[in-house]
Design a protein that fits this description.
208 residues, mainly alpha, Serine Threonine Protein Phosphatase 5, Tetratricopeptide repeat, 2 domains, 77% helix, globular
């Protein structure tokens, strides 16, 4: 690992620890430079960017919103963390997503949500293979990414299957297999109808 990457990793871990500390101090009133309205505006802007598919920019905005709401124990803050975890997953940053889900597991007192976070954390431990698929797509090795994703893709409700299916569809599109990609995105949307990026891709492929 390079020095710059190591430094970024340390900063990331420090930020998550600060989030955990803020969330753990129930009822604590810490000073904040931003008002509740600022937090909502940042969150809304981040969600719009998230829907556009720019997950790196959305993650940065969610971090800003989380910092603005620092010290508050609220559903808004938990919601921001959930969105940020999804941004990290979409970028193949599974270790960072695990950190965020750990923060949620410690902060969210809802029993059903805790169960979900625990299941996701359990799956994240086996997602190393998906990191390679994301890297192949980024490098333009679309056939390699397609073949690897095809082995894991499954619409069975699992996180691994979901991400692999999505990456298989993306790889098929990059390979010029538009009809197959369209069918893959359509099947995906039956299970995940609120996925804005998948909707956008399906709409685009419908006209190809």
């Amino acid at each position: 690992m390079s020095i710059s990457k190591a430094t970024a990793c340390i900063k990331r871990q420090s930020f998550v620890r600060h989030c955990l500390l803020a969330l753990a101090i129930s009822g604590a009133l810490l000073f904040s430079a931003c008002s509740g309205k600022d937090v909502e505006e940042l969150r809304s802007s981040a969600i719009e960017v998230f829907k556009s598919g720019d997950y790196a920019a959305a993650e940065q905005l969610f971090d800003e919103a989380l910092s603005a709401d620092y010290g508050r124990v609220s559903e808004v803050q938990l919601d921001i963390l959930r969105y940020r975890a999804e941004c990290e997953l979409r970028q193949g940053k599974y270790g960072e997503a695990a950190d965020t889900y750990e923060a949620l597991l410690n902060a969210d007192e809802t029993a059903d949500n805790k169960e979900i976070y625990q299941e996701l954390l359990s799956e994240l431990g086996s997602l190393d293979s998906l990191s390679g698929i994301s890297a192949s797509i980024a490098e333009g090795s679309y056939q390699e990414a397609y073949d690897a994703a095809a082995e894991l893709a499954a619409l069975d409700g699992s996180l691994t299957g979901k991400l692999a299916w999505f990456n298989k569809a993306v790889s098929a599109e990059y390979l010029g297999n538009y009809e197959e990609a369209y069918e893959l995105f359509n099947e995906y949307l039956k299970l995940y109808p609120d996925d804005a990026e998948a909707k956008k891709e399906a709409d685009f492929l419908r006209t190809r």
